[in-house]
Write the structure tokens for this entry.
Amino acid sequence: MRMILWCLWLSAGLFAQDASKPQAGEEKPEKPSPKEKARELLDRAAKSVTAAQPEVQVAGLLHLGENYALFDAKKAVEFLEQAFAAAAALPDAQRGELQSVVVATAAEVNLEKAVEMVTQMGPPPSAQRDVRVRPVERIVARLVDKKELDRAIQVIETVGVSGQFPFRAAMQVFEKLSPDDARRVQLFGSATSAYAGRPYGPFGDFLARHWQDVPPQMANDAVRALVNSILDRTDDQPMFKTLSTSKGSVSLGSQQDAELFNLLHIVRAFEAKRADEILEKRPELKAALERFPKGAESMRGGADDNMSTSVTSGQKASAEQRARMQLDALASSRSAEAQAAMKEDPRKALEIAKTIPLEYAKAQTLGSIARGVGDKDPAMARSVLNDCVRTLEGMKEIEMRIGTWDIVAEAYHKIKEPERAWEAIDKGMADAAELYKKDADADTPNKALREYWPSTQYYRMNVYRAANLFGVDAEPLLGKIADPDLNLLASIDLAQALLGRPRRGMNINVNREPKK
């Protein structure tokens, strides 16, 4: 009897399976267009988002809002309002951070709604970072694009009066004002006064970039106040910071040195004797400035020359840590040098890449070179990719190799090798699955927001890249993400790629307590 039932069940299954296939003479069903599939994915995510954990609900709703704007602007705003309200119900440590992201996202969807939301957030306690600064930067960027500069200044000063002054937002407006516009002096003066009252935030960046664009006495007063504040600080934490570009790298041993690095050339312009006195007591800073007299400004080889930064803070860096960070800086500098050489001489870039001392940086640079030459020299790209993949497969640390599979997939797709591109994506997904085991480990779980788990970010990166390269055929990758929360977020990223919308930058956070 049991055998009969099994046969009947099997027969029914086969019949159902056969019935689902096109019969002879029937046309295969057409694939949905990328836009149709994106809408289907977003609608599905909208139905399931309420089942997610509270913090993931916020992330899901805000990503639904930013992508739904292409279909229904009113519904998109509703999603963002729901995300903002859901964030308000979270614990303090999560509420402000997530509301900040929601408002920053809203600025791209509905500017008026973003301005309304940021006014509802309120100032932080005086000793804490002001999470309103990030969304204000986005809001001001939109207002600057709309040439509503007076309104942008009003938003900046409203937030600056009650909390941390948004210096980068102020720079955006300052740079759009004509040199003879009195509002420049007003804005710089407001920034200087705000820093004097609350010495926190990147006022030094504003000053370093624009000290020559304000009256000399105003610039002198500002740099004197800023340097005094830095030197008078009694809670200077131990820190080891390295900066690297295609021109080289520098290492700085304290927070004070790191801040003074970008300011001493301004001090020298007004008070050369004081600059010398400061450097006399800081040999590491003096050596850095002998190589790069204007600090970070001197280190950039051009507008496309990215600066890599690594920091160890909160405790004095050991000799081993310092050596590792210096090696990282050298690797970053060589990588940047190779990237800079790419446009003019790919083979020279390849020679530089081979001298990179760390395998993860070498592999990433090789992948970037292969991607860059794929259209013009497929043979070279194929050879470089072989070296890149061999290097990746020899690396044991998942965290060091996983980000390069994305580059490899794109490079293989460029040279018309889709099977190899899929292999790279599958390897990225497998590595993300291993990272998920660490993030969700019951003994030492990652307590950061799930939105920023390494596994979340890399699952989404691989799904986005697959959709970017292969369109709707990437959807089956979602079946490899077992966690429903991470699956939800990845499905929205898949829709985002199908809609042709650019991907957000990686934002990874690990907060793990050691095993007891």
User: Anything to note?
Assistant: The longest strand covers residues 238-245. Residues 326-498 form a domain with the Serine Threonine Protein Phosphatase 5, Tetratricopeptide repeat fold (CATH 1.25.40). Residues 1-22 have pLDDT under 50 and may be disordered. The radius of gyration is 27 Å.
